[in-house]
């Protein structure tokens, strides 16, 4: 099976602090991506750099902060960015290089089923035709409240959308350190992360340069989104020819974020990532422990509340009392039955509610999503 790799390159890797594109770096990255493509991977690029590429051209002295100035700079810079990629991908190898396509998305597109399905189908077709889709945020139409602002989150959502084998977030630092190495040179690099704990979050700080925006924190947040979608993530540096291949093969200069969800059987992958939950079941602390630590089935006694109109056989999301998603499962009860049985002991359920099985969700029909 062809494996799909999503690569995200941040502004700090493509542009200089004074603004403007670093064409040498763009050519380098394009050739790294083209080599990956030639090695048989389907490759998608999520690239930043439009604002950084455009602001000097438009006459601003430094990266603008006001939204419509940023949008204007992006409108100028995006064309320059694509032109640079087109040339660079086109010059790869002997026979006309690798074709590229521009896709601009907004956060709102991801919450509209029709629009995101369209994007997905377009991307699939492009990949089938051997084209590398180059994706950025559609800065002109993204409203302030709904802007990604950095592209890390966008790349994670794209990774989940195409069910990528891996998300590679390229930045100017070779991974996550225990503290920003620019502030503390004695900070230590973390090679592998299995779970994004509060400690991991506390290590990550803001942007390191005047062109970068999200810093390490937004990359860790993105890794978390990707991991929840079953997509393992690499955050690190790609500076020498062959580095991208090394990153994909597990020997890159950076931090790997593993997700055991990736190795789930197909049925559970569908359950966890591609199913459409029809409702929510809110459970108490005891049920949370039983599901997550005891790997047990969900019984009526642990249910606090039901939301939505689901039927036996539907997929539902299960949340704890603070609203965090614990996982998803196929429910054996209709919503009204689950409501009637909520909080009751199994004995009481048998007497009062007509149900086929005692487990509201059987552990074989469950996938944990909380990490
Ligand atoms: N714990 C950390 N480990 C590594 N880098 C960190 C950490 N905390 C903050 N950073 C900063 O995050 C920066 C990368 O993010 P950013 O500047 O937004 O780059 P990009 O443009 O690639 O998205 C690094 O240059 C570094 O200074
Ligand atoms: N869409 C914007 C992305 C902004 C940005 O700088 O993102 P990043 O480098 O990922 O922190 C652009 O192309 O300039």
Q: Roughly what is the average pLDDT, rounded to an integer?
A: 91
Class derived from helix and strand content: alpha/beta
Give the overall shape: elongated
CATH class of the largest domain: Alpha Beta
Number of strands: 13
Tell me the series of helices and strands, N- to C-terminal.
Answer: EHHEHHEHHEHEEHHEHEHEHEEEHHE
Total of helices: 14
Annotated CATH topology of the largest domain: Carbamate kinase
Main sheet characteristics: 8 strands, mixed
In what range is the share of β-strand residues? 15-25%
Radius of gyration: 23 Å
> What is the helix fraction of residues, given as a range?
25-40%
Task: Outline the low-pLDDT stretches.
Answer: none
- Number of individual domains: 2
Beginning-to-end CA distance, first to last residue: 28 Å
What is the CATH-assigned architecture of the largest domain?
3-Layer(aba) Sandwich
Q: CATH homologous superfamily of the largest domain?
A: Acetylglutamate kinase-like
What topology, given as strand order, has the largest sheet? Answer: 3-4-2-1-5-7-8-6
Bound ligands: adenosine-5'-diphosphate, the ligand N[C@@H](CCC(=O)OP(=O)(O)O)C(=O)O
Catalytic activity: L-glutamate + ATP = L-glutamyl 5-phosphate + ADP
InterPro entries: AceGlu_kinase-like_sf, Asp/Glu/Uridylate_kinase, G5K_ProB, Glu/AcGlu_kinase, Glu_5kinase, Glu_5kinase/COase_Synthase, Glutamate_5-kinase_CS, PUA
EC number: 2.7.2.11
Main location: cytoplasm
């Amino acid at each position: 099976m062809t494996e799909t790799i999503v690569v995200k390159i941040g502004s700090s890797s493509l542009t200089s602090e004074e603004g403007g594109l670093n064409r040498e770096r763009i050519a380098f990255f394009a050739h790294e991506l083209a080599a990956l493509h030639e090695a048989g991977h389907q490759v998608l690029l999520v690239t930043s750099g439009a604002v950084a590429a455009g602001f000097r051209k438009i006459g601003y002295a430094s990266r603008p902060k006001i939204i419509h100035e940023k949008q204007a700079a992006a409108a100028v810079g995006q064309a320059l960015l694509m032109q640079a990629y087109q040339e660079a991908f086109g010059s790869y190898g002997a026979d006309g290089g690798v074709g590229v396509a521009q896709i601009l998305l907004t956060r709102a597109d991801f919450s509209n089923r029709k629009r995101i399905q369209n994007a997905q189908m377009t991307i699939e077709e492009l990949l089938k035709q051997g084209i590398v889709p180059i994706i950025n945020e559609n800065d002109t139409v993204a409203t302030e409240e709904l802007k990604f602002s950095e592209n890390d989150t966008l790349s994670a959502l794209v990774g989940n959308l195409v069910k990528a084998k891996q998300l590679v977030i390229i930045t100017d630092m070779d991974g996550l350190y225990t503290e920003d190495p620019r502030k503390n040179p004695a900070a230590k690099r973390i090679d592998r992360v299995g779970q994004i704990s509060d400690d991991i979050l506390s290590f990550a700080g803001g942007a390191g340069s005047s062109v970068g925006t999200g810093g390490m924190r937004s990359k860790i947040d993105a890794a978390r989104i990707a991991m929840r979608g079953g997509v393992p993530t690499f955050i690190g540096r790609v500076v020498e020819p062959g580095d991208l291949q090394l990153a994909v093969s597990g020997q890159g200069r950076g931090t790997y974020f593993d997700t055991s969800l990736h190795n789930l059987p197909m049925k559970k992958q569908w359950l966890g990532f591609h199913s459409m939950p029809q409702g929510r079941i809110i459970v108490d602390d005891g049920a949370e422990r039983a599901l997550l630590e005891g790997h047990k089935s969900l019984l009526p006694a642990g249910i606090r509340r039901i939301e939505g109109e689901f039927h036996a056989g539907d997929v539902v999301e299960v949340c704890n009392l603070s609203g965090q998603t614990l996982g998803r499962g196929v429910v054996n009860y209709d919503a009204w039955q689950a409501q009637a049985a909520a909080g009751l002991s199994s004995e009481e359920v048998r007497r009062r509610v007509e149900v086929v099985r005692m487990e509201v969700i059987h552990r074989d029909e469950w996938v944990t999503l909380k990490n």
